[in-house]
Write a structure and sequence with these properties.
The protein is an alpha/beta fold. The protein has 4 helices and 4 strands. The two termini are 13 Å apart.
């Protein structure tokens, strides 16, 4: 399982999303590689990802990728992440 967390620059929101996704995945008992990157890198690296986590503003720019794109509204809300990842993975 490979998950890519994406934000505009690849150094802020995506890193928070990555860390929180790893916490949620651990509680779900799911092993996955989670990486953080910017949109341009995601267009290349997400070709082999199963899931892309991103902000609502970036969903349009990531359309066309083979991965499932999940929009996260609140990056610190582990419940939202749990709900959306559970729906996609279980």
């Amino acid at each position: 399982m490979r998950i890519v967390a994406v934000c505009g620059m690849g150094i802020g929101t995506s890193v928070l999303l990555k860390m929180n996704a790893e916490k949620v995945l651990k509680t779900l008992g799911i092993e996955a590689t989670v990486e953080a990157c910017d949109v341009a890198t995601a267009r290349r690296s997400a070709e082999t990802a199963n899931i892309v986590l991103t902000t609502p503003e970036l969903v349009e720019s990531l359309k066309g990728l083979p991965a499932e794109i999940i929009s996260i509204d609140h990056f610190f809300d582990l419940h939202e992440l749990n709900e959306k990842l559970s729906k996609a993975l279980l």
